[in-house]
Design a protein that fits this description.
The protein has 57 residues and is an all-alpha fold. Helices cover 44% and strands 0% of the residues. The radius of gyration is 14 Å and the shape is extended. The protein starts with 5 loop residues before the first helix and ends in a 14-residue tail after the last helix.
Amino acid sequence: MQKKGFASAMVSELCSILENEHLVPMLDANLKNSVSNQVYKNIGFKEGGKITDITFE
């Protein structure tokens, strides 16, 4: 992995474009992946809730 910040820059720019269009960027992230979650926090995402899967048999 290069870790040069290209992906973070792209996500950040996309969020700026969405916000300029009066849209709210939303991200569904895996809580088990602490590395990517830290990147998302650095970009400016905040935890807004948790999604739970419920299975019926």
